[in-house]
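Data deposition worksheet. Section B asks for the primary sequence of the deposited chain exactly as it was used as input, without tags or linkers unless they were present during the calculation. Section C holds the resulting structure in token form. Section D is free text for depositor observations; keep each observation to a single sentence. Incomplete worksheets are returned to the depositor.
Section A, Depositor: J.P.
Section B:
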Amino acid sequence: MACKIYGFGVRDFTRTTGSIRPYEESPIEIFGVDCCMFASNFPLDKLFSSYNTIFNAFKEITSSYLLEDRMKLFQNNVEKF
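Section C:
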């Protein structure tokens, strides 16, 4: 089982780190870092935010995570699934 975390522009047109935090943290709490991965919803997301803004928010929200867990969310789980 895998959970792809993306598509915040559909619900939040002004997207900030604080406003997407619950949408990012909830799946990780439910499914764990071994089953989650971050993604973008480009080109649709481009209407509301830049690619860098989206991934910088992901990075900021996970800044307290272990490096190993961050690698799973940003890269390793994508390769695995």
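Section D:
The mean pLDDT is 88.
The chain is about 50% helix and 5% strand.
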